[in-house]
TrEMBL record:
This is Phage tail protein. It holds the Pfam family Phage_T4_gp19. One of its GO terms (molecular function) is structural molecule activity. It comes from the Bacteria. The lineage of its organism: Bacteria, Thermotogati, Deinococcota, Deinococci, Deinococcales. Coiled coil: none annotated. It comes from Deinococcus radiopugnans.
């Protein structure tokens, strides 16, 4: 008899940047890959359209994290602003239901920050101040 397995919980994850666990991320979104399609008509058969695989595009990944006094992510972004892009390998780790063991990993190879948005500042709110950092990368692996 096959045992039914529950899906992983989306809140059990860690982000590792260049081998260092960054534990203050609250959300990671946008992870994806798209294989473009090149459509063409075959000669002699004007009614039939064929498709070939085209360019591979990786979706930008947006990280949300609590505003702290740490300058690491800001300094990484500012180096790119100055034209000195520092590429780092970033891993997104899915953890088991207890939040202790790694069950899945996505590796963003040669990632660098392309966009930053500051925290919403609202005197009437008691929410945590969250910054947004968008990463672009050369390729994606699933381990």
């Amino acid at each position: 008899m096959t045992q039914i397995q529950d899906p992983f919980r989306s809140y059990n994850f860690k982000i590792v940047i260049q081998g260092v666990v960054e534990g203050h991320f609250t959300q990671c979104s946008g992870l994806g890959v798209r294989l473009g399609v090149i459509r063409y008509r075959e000669g002699g058969n004007g009614q039939l359209t064929r498709a070939l695989p085209g360019r591979v595009e990786y979706a930008d990944v947006e990280l949300k994290y609590g505003l702290t006094q740490s300058h690491e992510l800001w300094d990484w972004l500012m180096s790119a602003v100055r034209g000195e892009v520092v590429r780092k390998n970033v891993s997104i780790l899915m953890l088991d239901p207890q939040g202790t063991a790694e069950v899945m990993r996505w590796n963003l190879l040669n990632a660098w920050p392309s966009q930053w948005r500051g925290a919403l500042l609202d005197a009437m709110s008691q929410d945590a101040a969250l910054e947004h950092l968008t990463l672009v990368y050369d390729s994606l692996e699933r381990a």
